[in-house]
Amino acid sequence: MTITLAQLAGHARLAVGGSPSTAPGVTENDRIAEIVNGAGEHLFSRPWRWRERTAGGFDLTADQAFINLATDGSGAAMVIDEIISVKPADVLKFSFEMVTPAVFEEYKRTTVTTNLFYVATLTRAKQTTSGLQDARLDIYPTPTTTTDDAVFIRYREGWPGYTSTQVGSTGAEVIPVPANAEQLLIEYVRAFAEGSEDGTTQMRVVAVDGGTLLDQALRKDGLSTNDQGALPMSRSFFFGYGDSTHPGVNQPGVNGGLNLVWRGTYSTSNSYNKDDLVHLSGSVYIALQPSTNQSPTVSDSVYWDLFLRGDAAS
Prior knowledge:
The protein is of the alpha+beta class.
């Protein structure tokens, strides 16, 4: 399933019952573009895994202190919002480290001259006629030799941004979101459309953020996990060392008031107290009362009870 710009524009109009209100000098298509872009930017403000991309084949060019990121190595357009990692194609030749712009400027004040180690930072080099800025990767030190297909970049794709011209034409542009996020995006479009009419955009967006659509999208994307309820108690929860230095991980009054102590393999020469745990013939038994030379058995219900059977105890 895919959703197009024309469909999002239709949802914006549906939300307000027709054409949205416009300010002087702003056309209906301008206003719809603002609504759609506002909703899309809000959706893309989260680090969704489906936004992650890998682009390769970037060249290091002699005497050029940056890599242009407007297109990838194959010439396809890129909309980079955030760099995740920069990796050299050959890790034995040189390495890259991503730093903040402030740290990058500190490096530039040094006199490093090497082709083995580079620092890099994401910058916006220029303003384009569409109002979007081209991303580029500034690097230091400046390469002294040209290396083809030297760098691979892992990044999060940004919202592409749509113009009133695109809204006013066929609107055939496919929105870059997966099926599990489409309904969420539609609700954001409705929130921005309705909110722009009565000044309640923030309230409406907060309502969507607190709803089930966002929760479901986050779970399907893997950014959050399903609540599986209380976890079962494992051996590591119960067992400690049965001596004076390590009396066991559970003390009286903790974990339901039990004082479970792991005593290792059962021995007829040892005395055992209530709630002691022992291992015998592949199973674990819990003492029901103090005893000496009272061997645990599956049928015993006086001194011992089966705690973990067979392989469950290993």
